[in-house]
């Protein structure tokens, strides 16, 4: 009888973890963007519930196609469950990406840092709604270290809820934190909207 030598644990092949639906969509995003080399490309990123989709709908006058998903839930845009969702929004000669809010179980910030095609975009719009979290700072520092911060604007939403004093304090904090590349805006009273439109190139 021939005895077979048992394989040691070190000799067993270790399979890499399977890609998530989110990662597959981020890879598909790069491929789809490559089809629009002659058009301006803008990514709208940020915290869940920060008003990213509403902002996109507002600056494109409700005429981007398809229109972004706007809902009462904090994470209406979801790339983690289906490979058949539209990733691009078209408006005139600009291609927008309304990215899902990061730093959630479904959309961890690590996936964005690892797979999101930042280099494919002409402009990056980072939308925050209030407190700056560790994930926001981590994304900012990563973008800065990879020389992407030059094409990025940080937009702080819900400015209508701040008093003049609070607005001045937040404006100072954001300017210091993000190297002066910040704007306060409101989807409700429209302040800051024209500045954002000028930044993305559709003013």
Helix-strand blueprint:
Blueprint: H1 21-33, E1 40-46, H2 52-59, E2 89-91, E3 94-98, H3 109-115, E4 123-128, H4 134-145, E5 152-156, H5 164-177, E6 182-184, H6 193-200
Parallel strand pairs: 1-3, 1-4, 4-5, 5-6
Antiparallel strand pairs: 2-3
Low-confidence stretches: none
Assembly type: single chain
Secondary-structure-derived class:
alpha/beta
Q: Strand-and-helix sequence, N→C?
A: HEHEEHEHEHEH
Which strand order spans the largest sheet, edge to edge or round the barrel? 2-3-1-4-5-6
CATH superfamily: P-loop containing nucleotide triphosphate hydrolases
Give the CATH topology.
Answer: Rossmann fold
Structure description:
With 203 residues, the chain is an alpha/beta fold. The chain contains 6 helices and 6 strands, in the order αβαββαβαβαβα. 31% of the residues lie in helices and 14% in strands. The protein has a 6-stranded mixed sheet with strand order 2-3-1-4-5-6. Helix 4 (134-145) links the parallel strand 4 (123-128) and strand 5 (152-156). The N and C termini lie far apart (82 Å). The model has no long low-confidence stretch (mean pLDDT 90).
Task: Explain briefly what this protein structure is.
It contains six helices and six strands, in the order αβαββαβαβαβα. The chain is of the alpha/beta class.
Q: How would you describe this structure in keywords?
A:
6 strands; six-stranded mixed beta sheet; alpha/beta; Rossmann fold; globular; 203 residues
């Amino acid at each position: 009888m021939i005895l077979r030598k048992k394989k040691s644990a070190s000799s067993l092949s270790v399979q890499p973890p399977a890609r998530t639906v989110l990662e597959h969509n981020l890879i598909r995003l790069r491929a789809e963007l490559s089809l629009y080399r002659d058009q301006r490309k803008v990514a709208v990123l940020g915290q869940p519930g920060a008003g990213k989709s509403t902002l996109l709908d507002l600056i494109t006058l409700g005429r981007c196609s398809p229109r972004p998903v706007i809902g009462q839930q904090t994470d209406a845009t979801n790339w983690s469950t289906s490979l058949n969702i539209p990733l691009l929004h078209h408006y005139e000669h600009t291609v927008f990406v309304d990215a899902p809010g990061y730093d959630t179980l479904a959309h961890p910030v690590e996936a964005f840092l690892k797979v999101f095609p930042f280099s494919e975009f002409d402009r990056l719009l980072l939308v925050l709604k209030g407190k700056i979290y560790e994930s926001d700072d981590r994304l900012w520092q990563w973008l800065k270290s990879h020389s992407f911060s030059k094409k990025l604007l940080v937009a702080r939403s819900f400015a209508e809820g701040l008093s003049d004093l609070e607005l001045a304090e937040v404006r100072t904090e954001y300017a210091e934190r993000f190297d002066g590349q910040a704007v306060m805006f409101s989807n409700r009273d429209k302040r800051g909207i024209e500045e954002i439109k000028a930044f993305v190139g559709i003013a």
